[in-house]
Design brief:
Keywords: Signal. This is Extracellular solute-binding protein. The chain is of the alpha/beta class and about 260 residues long. It contains eight helices and 13 strands. Helix 4 links the parallel strand 8 and strand 9. The radius of gyration is 22 Å and the shape is globular.
Length: about 260
């Protein structure tokens, strides 16, 4: 009898120990519609894309598991700051954000212009930065575009929660132009909404964008940061990141002079 009780207690202890270990290595991460690098499928309720695969693999290599949820960036970043979620993909570096998060080494960077979509026939309305003050400019709330735009209070900004909301406001005339970091994502959404009444203004702003994951300084998993960062660095330098992007027929981010 005593032996049976001892065995039962041992099994219970092992089960609780397993649950504790599993909980300690569960990483909570949010995704959002950021095609083609992050895509949320409404039918399957799952996130996919290279940014999903890269983090899944890095976390797996340290013995953990990622729990993905879908939220718009503004809500996700609010949860990240409070440590409710642990990591967020594709967070642009700013001095303010460094007070709340630690950035993993960049998996690369992209050089692309920030553009302004306007209605067809209005391409010449915005030819220089100062012209933006004449119009209502749609922008995603919480998104870092460039300092001159983000800090300028003379520009009348119409805020949207995500790309879909931004596109709807543009289609229905709530704003005269929209600022865009990702032209392909905008065009895909506009096509899905059966609208082709857009063109791009003459004025553009060139920007070098580092591709970073960020971890909350209040995360209970913060002790894993250095291990995860090493895994992400190795995946970048060994070509694993490049391979993952190519699996999706996407051009991988450049890494030769990316800031680390």
């Amino acid at each position: 009898m005593i032996q049976k009780i001892s065995v039962t207690l041992w099994i219970i202890c092992m089960l609780f120990s397993s649950y504790a270990i599993a909980d300690n290595l569960l990483i909570k991460v949010d995704c959002r519609q950021r095609p083609p690098e992050m895509i949320y499928n409404d039918d399957t309720k799952k996130c996919s894309g290279p940014l999903i695969d890269i983090l899944n693999e890095a976390v797996t290599q340290v013995g953990g598991k990622v729990e993905w949820e879908r939220r718009p960036f503004q809500k996700s970043y609010s949860l990240l700051k409070r440590g409710v979620i642990d990591i967020l993909p594709r967070v642009i570096k700013t001095s303010e954000r460094k007070e709340d998060v630690r950035y993993f080494s960049a998996i690369g960077y992209q050089v692309k212009p920030i553009v302004f979509a306007v209605k067809k026939g209005h391409e010449n309305d915005i030819q220089k930065f100062q012209d933006l003050q004449k119009y209502r400019i749609g922008a995603k709330r919480g998104t870092v575009y460039f300092d001159e735009f983000n800090d300028n209070r003379s520009i009348y900004k119409i805020h949207a929660i995500d790309d879909i909301d931004l596109s709807r406001k543009f289609i229905h005339g709530r704003c005269d132009a929209v600022i865009l970091l990702d032209i392909k994502a905008f065009e895909k959404i506009m096509k899905s909404m059966k609208s082709d009444n857009f063109a791009y203004a003459k004025y553009q702003y060139p920007k070098k964008i580092g591709n970073h994951y960020a971890m909350s300084l209040k995360s209970k998993r913060l002790k894993l940061f250095d291990k995860l960062n090493t895994k992400i660095q190795n995946m970048t330098t060994t070509g694993k990141v490049k391979q993952i992007y190519e699996n999706y027929n996407l051009v991988p981010p450049m890494i030769d002079t990316a800031k680390r």
